[in-house]
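dumping this here before i forget
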Amino acid sequence: MENRNADEEESDFYPRPGADAQYITILAKHFPHRLKKLTADDLMHLVQPVADSNFNTLSAAWCILALQAWSKVADISQFENLSIGEV
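structure:
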């Protein structure tokens, strides 16, 4: 997520959170060795739009898929300070 282009336009069918989630999903499924470089801040960047109610159904769905793919291959021990709470 470090190669982000600030000039990229967002649209209903290309929401920035959805694009970030697609990136994480692809990393998890096809490049798990690169996924290990993600930090807790990268994951917070992924879920923050959902927490802020700044998402659409497409980006929310991609976020769920990304977190699911990430959880299957990530070393969860480095993310001890992250938690999921019900609202």
